[in-house]
Design goal:
Blueprint: E1 3-9, H1 12-22, E2 30-36, E3 55-67, H2 71-87, E4 94-97, E5 101-104, E6 107-119, E7 122-132, H3 149-153, H4 159-176, H5 182-191, E8 200-204, E9 207-216, E10 222-226, E11 231-234, E12 239-242
Parallel strand pairs: 1-2
Antiparallel strand pairs: 2-3, 3-7, 4-5, 5-6, 6-7, 8-9, 8-12, 9-10, 10-11
Helix pairs in contact: 2-4, 2-5
Length: 246
C-alpha cells in the first residue's frame, strides 16, 4: 500500500485525480490529509473536520473488466467494506444511509464519495473518497446529526490502523468479487440499509411525503413505495430522507 501523507489540501479526491491524470499511479495508492480546506461529499456538499482528529483519505482503484452497468455494485462493495471495518470496532446500532453514509445510533460517522472514470461501456478506475469522524469530540450546531467513534466508544482510536484495515479489505473484496457474487453483495447492503421497509418521511421537489424504501434499482436509484402502494424511483438529487434522532 503506497500512502501519500499531506498536512493540508483542498480535497484528497481532487489531488489524487490530478495525480492520476498527470502520472502513472500505483493501484490502491492512498492520499490522506490531516486537514481539507475543500472536502467534498455527495451532491456538492462540503465535509467539515477538525484538523488532525479524523480520517480524510482517497484511494485510487484500477478496475479490470468492470462494466459501466455494474457501477452500483462497486458502490455496494466499497460501502460494505467501510461499514464492516467500523462495525468491527464495536460501534452500536450501525446502518447504511443510502447511498453510502455510515451511521451509528442514527448519527453520521462516515461519508463516502466515488468518482468513476469510464471508457465506453466499461469502468476504467475509481477514486474513492472516505471521511471518517474518528477522534473529534465537538461539532458545530450545523452538524447536529454528526458523531465520532471516540464520542461513542469513549476512547482515542488508531486512525492509521482504521485506514489500513479499510484499504486492505477493499483490495481483497474488489479483486475477489465476480458477477456471480453481485446478488449476495446487494442483499448484504440492503440488510444494513437505514429504514429499509420502515415507514419514513421523505422530501422531494413536490414536497414532504410518507413512504418506505423497498429496494434499489439497477442504476442505483432508490425505490420508495408510496402510501397508495405505487413504487417510485428517485435519484440522489431527487429525494431526501427526513431523519429523526433518538
Amino acid at each position: 500500500m503506497y500512502i501519500i501523507k499531506l498536512d493540508a489540501i483542498g480535497s484528497t479526491n481532487s489531488f489524487l485525480k490530478d495525480l492520476v491524470s498527470n502520472s502513472v499511479v500505483e493501484n490502491y495508492t492512498v492520499v490522506t490529509a490531516e486537514y481539507q480546506t475543500n472536502g467534498r461529499g455527495q451532491m456538492g456538499t462540503t465535509w467539515e473536520s477538525e484538523p488532525g482528529k479524523n480520517l480524510m483519505f482517497s484511494v485510487f482503484v484500477e478496475l479490470l473488466d468492470w462494466k459501466l452497468v455494474d457501477a452500483v455494485n462497486l458502490n455496494y462493495i466499497v460501502t460494505l467494506v467501510v461499514f464492516t471495518a467500523l462495525k468491527n470496532l464495536g460501534l452500536p446500532r450501525m446502518s447504511i444511509k443510502w447511498p453510502n453514509d455510515i451511521l451509528s445510533d442514527n448519527k453520521k460517522i462516515c461519508g463516502i464519495l466515488l468518482e468513476n472514470s469510464v471508457n465506453s461501456e466499461f469502468l476504467k478506475s475509481t477514486i474513492i473518497g472516505i471521511g471518517v469522524n474518528v477522534n473529534q469530540e465537538f461539532f458545530s450546531e450545523d452538524l447536529s446529526l454528526a458523531n465520532s467513534i471516540k464520542r461513542i466508544l469513549g476512547v482515542d482510536q488508531d486512525r492509521m490502523g482504521i485506514l489500513q484495515n479499510i484499504v486492505s479489505n477493499l483490495k481483497e473484496e474488489v479483486e475477489l468479487c465476480s458477477k456471480d457474487s453481485f446478488i449476495d453483495i446487494k442483499e448484504r447492503y440492503l440488510k444494513s440499509l437505514y429504514k429499509y421497509f420502515m415507514p419514513s418521511m421523505f422530501e422531494s421537489a413536490e414536497g414532504v411525503f410518507m413512504g418506505k424504501i423497498v429496494g434499489i434499482n439497477s442504476i442505483g436509484n432508490l425505490e420508495i413505495e408510496m402510501e397508495d402502494e405505487s413504487v417510485r424511483h428517485f435519484g440522489l438529487k431527487e429525494v431526501k430522507m427526513l431523519r429523526e434522532v433518538h
